[in-house]
Write a structure and sequence with these properties.
The chain is mainly alpha-helical. The chain has one domain. Helices cover 69% and strands 6% of the residues. The chain is built from six helices and three strands. The protein has a three-stranded antiparallel beta sheet.
């Protein structure tokens, strides 16, 4: 059955996966970035995550609260452990120094695998996704990944506001 699923997967899905892996690998080297660029990938991934919940679970209203709880929990945990604490403001460049991290690649792959799994489940057993016992945990996973990504955006926003208090980061 797994072989059948993999063979039935459209080619563009594998091309997308290759692009997402490349994007994630680009995060594994330190970079100097503008605040807007530093927040672009995290915000885009959060939007993709929310879109995944909305498209897959439009008929199950408990998926969205699951997503929201996932975001809140991940934001709180990321703040508590000081995730992204290595990001620094470089005054001379007026940019952020974002250290190398494998976390974005892991999060991107988590989103892809979750979305792929949901798509397969919809094809194999569409009624399964209407169950709150399925929709809420999957919404939570999507939300938790989004929360970790969004925590990076909040750190970059805070650092930029501290460095340039009279301007909007960008």
């Amino acid at each position: 059955m797994l072989t059948e699923i993999l063979h039935q997967t459209p080619r563009w899905v594998w091309i997308l996966l290759a692009g997402l892996i490349a994007l994630g690998l680009s995060q594994t080297v330190p970079r100097r970035m503008t605040p807007a660029r530093a927040t672009a990938v995290p915000v885009a991934m959060a939007v993709v995550s929310l879109g995944g919940v909305i498209s897959a679970f439009s008929a199950q209203p408990l998926a969205l609260p699951g997503w929201g709880v996932g975001v809140a929990v991940a934001l709180a945990l990321a703040h508590a452990i000081g995730a992204w604490s290595g990001i620094r403001w470089l005054e001379a460049d007026r940019r952020l120094l974002v250290p190398a991290s494998w976390v974005p690649l892991a999060l991107i792959l988590c989103l892809f695998i979750t979305r792929y799994g949901v798509s397969v489940a919809m094809a194999v057993n569409p009624g399964l996704l209407w169950r709150a016992s399925v929709a809420m945990p999957i919404g939570f996973i999507y939300g938790a990944v989004s929360g970790i990504f969004l925590s990076r955006s909040l750190v970059t926003w805070r650092l930029t506001r501290q460095a340039m208090p009279n301007s909007v980061p960008g």
